[in-house]
Amino acid sequence: MKLCRQLRKRFRKPKARVVFCRKKQQRKTGVFRPINKKKPQLDPENQVPHIIIFESEIKSMAAQAEIWGNLETGGELYGYLLRNGTFVIMLATPPGKNAIHRSAIFQQDYHFFLRASSILFNYFSLIIIGNWHSHHFMDLKTLSRTDIANLNKIAQKNNFKQLCQILVTFDHCPESIDSVKYETNIKSYYYPDATFGSPQKSPIKVISGVSPIRKAIEYEDELKSYFIVPQNKNKNKISFNEYKPNYYGKRLLPQFIYAQVDQFVKKNNLSILHKIEDNFIVFQIPLFDELGSIFIVYDIRIPYHINSIFYKIDVISNKSVNISDKILINNQAKNCFDYAFQLGKKLIVKQISQNQSRKSIDQNIILASSGHVTRTDGDGQ
User: Fold this and answer.
1) Is the CB of residue 184 less than 8 Å from the CB of residue 239?
2) Which of 161, 174, 216, 277 is most exposed, with the fewest beta carbons within 10 Å of its own?
3) Angle formed at CA 48 by CA 308 and CA 41, multiple of 5 degrees
4) Do the domain assignments include residue 319?
């Protein structure tokens, strides 16, 4: 019996065959799934929770706060919640007809809230992602304990994990609104744990123009009478904490690009300037003691491609020339900084020499027109 057991252990099929059988079954079914493949993890430095909102919604909240003056007012925020914790606000609703407005209390009309939530979900698939209210000219410029407690109760009842909250305040505390101009402040907060947690400050990214949801509501008479409230145009300055993406050095691009930049700087002993414009980051490489420059433009959105490469000669003209094809067609994207730098030096030398030869030709033409040019192959002038 012992001999039989030893023989079974010795001639047992290896595990590699089992994996081969799994792959063989996958080939038969046509389904290929990676085995024991780790999921890519997001970079925690890029996970900055912020609020994206349309300009029309900020103006609507500021105008509502101005109408109610020294009384609190508010409403709900409807939109979407992204995976990285970013809130996208598509519509800020006004207070209902039966809402309670006091100097230090605001209570939304419950029936208006239920009706608004069902309409916005059925028509536009919008969900509630927070609320807003005003503190007008009160000395309290942040959220009160009751504000935080009320939102925690809403989250507990409805099983909301993350919510945001916007507070509208006025600066320079005059006795009445009409007498003195004032500044409207928009302060935004988000709750990582809305059921029991406390709020944290969150920056705002404003999209210019009118929200597409507001535009669609204005075309429907039934919805327009329910959501769009006549309001005065708020001409006062509106200030808020603006969202700014992580700049160079904070992983706005993949790590291998920054390693490439550091390697190039150490190799050539140069300083590279960088600038953020919309969704692009521009690296500027100086040429020949700043006679010209190379501009490498990266798209900071996935998959982080090179958008374009330019070179400019400040001595000759301020016009920039696109040399992206010369670099990218030759498959030099991996070492684009070195290749663009060498190509830029060649082009600048060539263009300067051409410019000097043109100047010498122009001088000869001027001398010939004045009759002072000597002939090298003849006797006379």
Assistant:
1) yes
2) 277
3) 80
4) yes
Mean pLDDT across 33-37: 45
Categorize the per-residue pLDDT at 100 as very low, low, confident or very high, splitting at 50, 70 and 90. Answer: very high
Tell me, what's the pLDDT at 302? 73
- Comparing C-alpha atoms, which of 255, 250, 254, 248 is closest to residue 271? 248
- Which contacts of 174-179 are long-range, i.e. CB under 8 A and separated by 24 or more positions? 174/137, 176/69, 177/66, 177/69, 177/70
Cα–Cα distance between 317 and 310 in angstroms, integer? Answer: 14
Residue after which a domain boundary falls, among 183, 214, 240: 240
Take residue 196 and report the two structure tokens written for it: 């029991």
Looking up tokens 């433009």 gives 297
Q: Rounded to an integer, what distance in angstroms lies between the CA atom of residue 275 and that of residue 258?
A: 14
Helices (H), 103-189: 110-124, 145-158
189-221 residue pLDDT tens: 999 888 888 888 888 989 888 999 999 998 888
Is the residue at 90 inside a domain? yes
Whether 178 maps to a domain, the answer reads yes
CB environment 197-233: b (16+ within 10 A), e (fewer) = bebeebebebeeeebebbeebeeeeebeebbeeeeee
The predicted-structure confidence for 116-127, as pLDDT tens digits, reads as follows: 999 999 999 999
